[in-house]
């Protein structure tokens, strides 16, 4: 796929697949194009060229939207809505949502359920965002830096939930700057730089000659875009 913003080629021939029942991780420098890719997959942006099939359907089509979940990097939009109310509202948009009380329990949201979203800590907002991505029982879920800024316990909880999703047959596509996270979770890792996949493989395949961070540094340029 190709996507340009003026002179910036945010996606410059990026190509990849993500399988059901597996975790696919995108690693890459700031500005490499990871979020742009997720925005195209979720119908929030349109590629200038290339093709994209989401569960066999066009991204953004009414048939596909109920089957995908998105945890964005940040959502400034929710403002004064209380966490629990927000999740109940999101649940009301789906025909067969996961019960909100289950998600509140799963993600440890109960103690701040009645707090307005904008007053939550960064990590608490992440938990609500994660719950929002899962409430529609997605077959494919996009998690954009799901554990950035989380404390170790919350990060481990997120990892457990990602593994449960995978074991339930969900396709999980996540971005991360945490090499340990990619190594621990991903069935397949794609290292992206300047809008292209530079190398792909299992963590084991990519770490034959050193750590995943070594592979990352070898396959990315660090040039600003
Ligand atoms: N709406 C936009 N308008 C103009 N430029 C954009 C827009 N969205 C993204 N870009 C540019 O496209 C490039 C890719 O950005 P993107 O957010 O996809 O990177 P990323 O890999 O997700 O980075 P990070 O790791 O920092 O989240 C960047 O140079 C960014 O400035």
UniProtKB/TrEMBL annotation:
Extract the CDD domains matched here. ABC_DR_subfamily_A (cd03230)
What does the UniProt entry say about where the protein is found?
A: Cell membrane
Any GO BP: response to antibiotic
Q: Does the keyword GTP-binding apply?
A: no
PROSITE patterns to which the protein is assigned, alphabetical: ABC_TRANSPORTER_1 (PS00211), ABC_TRANSPORTER_2 (PS50893)
Provide the protein name.
ABC transporter ATP-binding protein
Q: Which GO terms describe its molecular function?
A: ATP binding; ATP hydrolysis activity
Q: Name one GO cellular component term.
A: plasma membrane
Sequence ranges assigned to domain ABC transporter in this UniProt record: 1-219
Question: Per UniProt, which keywords does this protein have?
Answer: Antibiotic resistance, ATP-binding, Nucleotide-binding, Transport
Q: Which Pfam families match?
A: ABC_tran
Record bears the keyword DNA-binding: no
Q: Which organism is it from?
A: Tessaracoccus flavescens
Note the topology in the membrane.
Peripheral membrane protein
